[in-house]
Amino acid sequence: MPPRRPHALFLLVLVVLLLARWRPAAASALSTFALAKADATTIVCGLLPSAASPLLVDLNCTTAGGDHARQETYPSSHPFSALAGGEDFLCAVGPSGARADAVDMRWWDLSKNGGSRSKRVYLGPPLQALSSGAYRVCGVLAGGELHCWRWRGLAVPAGLRFVAVAVGDGFVCGIVEGPPASIRCFGDNPAEEAVAGAPRGGSYDVVAACRRRACALSMAGGLSCWGHDAPALGADAATGYAALALGEGGVCGLRTNGTIRCFGDGVAAPPGSLAGAQYISVQAHGAAFCGVLMANYSLVCWGGREFTATNRLVFGRVMPGPCVPMSSCQCGVLPGSANLCATGLCICMDCAFERNVAAPNASLVPGKSGRSRRTMWIAIGAAVGFLVLLVALQIALLLWCRRRKNGKGDAAGVQQPLMPLRLGSSKGPGSVVEHFTLEALHAATDGFSDDRRIGSGSFGSVYRGTLPSGREVAIKRAEDAAKPSSSAPRPERRRDRETAFNSELTALARANHKNIVCLLGCCADSGERVLVYEFMANGTLHDQLHSRSPLAPPVASWCGRLTIALGAARGIEYMHVYAVPPIMHLDVKSANILLDDSWTAKIADFGLSSVLDADAGACGDNGSPPEPLYTGGTVGYMDPEYYRLQHLTDKSDVYSFGVVLLELMSGCRVVQRYAESVTPKNVVEFAVPLILADDVARVLDPRLPTPTPDEAEALAYVGYLAADCVGPVGCDRPSMTEVVDALERALAACGVAPLSRVGTARRTLSRSGTDQFDLTDTD
Q: Rounded to whole angstroms, how far apart are CA atoms 275 and 260?
């Protein structure tokens, strides 16, 4: 290895210093709100936290003027991350449901004859910038390529890598990746002032365009404009700006302290109380300007004839920016933005603000102390930049080695500007829950054909689907007039499909356990509510017990049935004990216990689930259960205490699981006619008296072989456990942790050694074991 040369370190430090002073494109390159024109009327659109679920984002549009009461919502299956509007159109970009490493761009025609349906105009690599003007829209792909839609004949030299873009009338300006980050403009007429007059040299990070003029911000925060009727700028435009918006009459700049300053004879500065407020971002269209307030992320507008002194608030809360992994935020996180995003995501602070947004009265002209602080920040930035560079080099080396080892690149390991929504996923920490388009799910299920229907859930039918990758999935689609599998004594209090969809999505998003079904994705497009799960090859436990002849081997043996029971119990225990906050399923039954290709039991269908109040125990403070939330469940499995008295606790799930245990032991349907009865009886009424009379043999499924002595002892023990679970008083029932322990003991007594917390020695079981859960080891 040749000796290291001293000047190499110097060059490295020089590069680090340059990188520390060079800022990436501002966060406004991707806007979460947009202004458009529809038949000469201003339309304001924004991305709002969804009313259906905090894990989704809705696209809302409203006509400017009046009281904004008339709004239109476009729910999306992929939460949109960026918007752009123009003359009679709106564009929205978000992760694609067809390809995990791609994004969709959808186009709405806002004219009177356009209708409200969207069409996809782009499917490809993620975008890092998006801009529109007149009837055209342009974006910068993740690799820096500039791409424009509805613009034939636009000539852009190959090889240029852009970081920002702005579209005017017949021209487009982009910032070329630097340093130095220079401006290049192209158009239908090269002699156009906005094209020919673009600044030469310099380094920029924000650019905007309107009609036949453009403006830009330098790396130092200085504002400059060019083109036809470019607005005149004052002396205080030379420094201190983080973002800008260019309208017909002038330009408004967003200062690094969050306030707005406007230039031009025809532009209105924020009036009244809005004048001194702090903003996160600002956009313009025509004479109208809109900005997102730092204080509460509300969207306010001013200027033009549509917005009056009493009519400036458009949306009370919008997404202040795209949700990205928290680790990607170089300059901090917007306060409270993690509450607007899925687990592990947040909204980054624009680096141009330089952490001054909390001090609206801070001077923009630094004195001696200001220079000292700036020098300090440059030094800190250089040190941090050096460390970041070293880490980046290490990561790049690791990724390169991994690609060499695997023989191919790992696209999922590359951070993209727009990522699919990340939830606290049931697939594992940090995994991605995809957002599918309705078209993709139609194709996967042959148009939701009856031939693909494999069952029903809490809010609709379940279909077997095949994704383009060939993977088989289960797709649950909400139906307007769904025939629910569950019933309740008060049908008027059943939650509608929207609430069921929300409950299941929220519950499965935070669940991460091998015995809980894996949620792969969702769709909330065009009013549809669809969830996509892993496909469970062996269907439901109910079907295996009651609809299969002959029985499959895992349910044709006593140890196999106890293993299935233990897996399901562990899934419920996870929800009660380890989920944060704890979850009550409220519809535990054999039809909601699914079996995968290895016969692992998994709890499914969380449409009736509810979060358990951590402060409320099973019996409250004085022996009385906490107040109920609502009634739900399935006849035969529903806790009588919950049914009659509206006492809702986690012990309601314990009761339902006890019924499943009796179903597994007897092979009987939960409600059926028995030999000695004329009217149908619940399996609890049939089995529990025999178990308590120590006559468990009469309860056991006659289709299975006679149990061995060890199995008979274990089944008697499980019978007592089931009787305890279905006891009339919830407080006297065991917890799910105790149920899991008891089932592990039963399997150990059968000679099966599950992954247990009680060891693998052979156990002697007794009736007292289900009361006190203690046992004696024998040699």
A: 7
Rounded to a whole number of angstroms, the distance between the first and last alpha carbons of the chain is 65
* Comparison of pLDDT for 23 and 656, the residue scoring more: 656
CA dist 589 and 602 (Å) reads 12
343-372: pLDDT as tens digits: 667 888 877 765 333 333 333 333 333 333
Same domain membership, residue 519 and residue 547: no
Distance of alpha carbon 288 from alpha carbon 301, whole angstroms? 7
- 762 vs 570, 713, 716, CA distance in Å? 21, 12, 16
User: Structure pTM?
Assistant: 0.54
- Last residue within a domain, chosen from 213, 230, 247: 230
Tokens of 274: 């809005």
Q: How many CB atoms lie within 10 A of CB 188?
A: 13
103 three-class SS: strand
Supply the DSSP string of 557-578, one letter for each residue: SHHHHHHHHHHHHHHHHIIIII
Q: Provide the number of structural domains found in the chain.
A: 3
User: What pLDDT score does 389 carry?
Assistant: 66
Please give the backbone phi and psi of residue 404, each rounded to the nearest 5 degrees, phi first: -65, -35
Nearest to 228 by CA among 211, 247, 216: 211
Q: What is the pLDDT of residues 575-634, one digit of tens each?
A: 999 887 888 898 999 999 999 999 999 999 888 887 665 444 445 444 444 444 445 678
Residues with active-site annotation: 587
